[in-house]
Automatic annotation (TrEMBL):
Residues 54-79 have a biased composition (Acidic residues). Its cofactor is FMN. This is iodotyrosine deiodinase. It is an enzyme of class 1 (oxidoreductase).
Length: 298
């Protein structure tokens, strides 16, 4: 009995330590499984590849990367000269008419999957890309690369990569809900337009820049910046009478980056086939939301 009375407090202490250790480990596991950007351990129903994989922004720099010493100090860059700015100012009647004209033009824009092989002047494509490059960007880093592909063999290789991954996407990754939502648009993993369109424009976001001295430059809000430039690109294409369909081929980025010999700091954001609409092109009869549904005036 005396021995038991001595052992019992010791066992109680040991038991408390074990329980405490288990509680700490369970909290660490919970924190790890719910950390931003982590998809491991997530429920299959909560897995959203179009958000969790395609559209992650790599602007944040880890503490280890900060300590590497390869990142440029903003103070190393020269002071930027500021100059007067006086854009044209239109009479109110002209402003109103121009706003209506632009809306009419852009309201005709549609996603077109039936594209003519008819050649398009290269200078037109150059001007359209140049226009997309006027987009604003975080700290004016201009974190975009537009790869224009017209070579038939390269276009076909791109199609093979995209269709192989897209079939897996439709059959496995995307899930029934996503596939069903696309059914009314009659889309699938067959992408004839990747061979047919005279140009493919692959838009890459530069997750960081590389300066002439080989130091890395932070590209703030790189994905948002490049997305804005894509919007301007769509408007520029519409302005010259060309069509496209916005494509974000899931899981194709690394293979396409290697095929096109792009550096590791570039990640594919969007793929656009560009050309004239085919003579027999059709589009779904979709309706856009009225102004009251998309604007709140306070």
């Amino acid at each position: 009995m005396a021995l038991l009375s001595v052992i019992t407090p010791v066992l109680a202490v040991v038991l408390c330590l074990v329980i405490g250790f288990m509680l700490v480990r369970s909290r660490e596991t919970e924190t790890t499984s719910t950390a931003p950007g982590k998809t491991e351990g997530a429920k299959k129903a909560d897995f959203r590849p179009w958000v969790d994989q395609d559209l992650q922004d790599d602007t944040e720099i880890t503490a280890k990367e900060e300590e590497d010493g390869d990142w440029a100090d903003s103070h190393e860059e020269e002071d930027l000269l500021h100059v007067p700015y006086s854009p044209p100012r239109y009479p109110e009647e002209t402003m109103l008419q121009r706003s209506k004209d632009l809306y009419t033009l852009m309201n005709q824009r549609r996603s077109v999957r039936f594209i003519s092989p008819e050649p398009v002047p290269r200078e037109v494509i150059d001007n359209v890309i140049h226009t997309a490059g006027t987009a604003p960007s975080g700290a004016h880093t201009e974190p975009w690369t537009f790869v224009v592909v017209s070579d038939p063999d390269t276009k076909h290789q791109i199609r093979q990569i995209v269709e192989e991954e897209e079939e897996v996407n439709y059959r496995q990754r995307m899930g029934d809900k996503w596939v069903n939502d696309l059914a009314k648009l009659k889309t699938n993993w067959i992408k004839d337009y990747l061979d047919v369109a005279p140009y493919l424009v692959l838009v890459f976001k530069q997750t960081y820049g590389i300066l002439p001295n080989d130091k890395k430059r932070t590209h703030y809000y790189n994905e948002i910046s490049v997305s804005i430039s894509c919007g301007i690109l769509l408007a520029a294409l519409q302005n010259v009478g060309l069509v496209t369909v916005t494509s974000t081929p899931l899981n194709c980025g690394p293979q396409l980056r290697i095929l096109l010999k792009r550096p590791a700091n570039e990640k594919l954001l969007m793929l656009l086939p560009v050309g004239y609409p085919a003579s027999d092109a059709t589009v779904p009869d979709l309706k856009r939301k009225p102004l009251d549904d998309i604007m709140v005036h306070i």
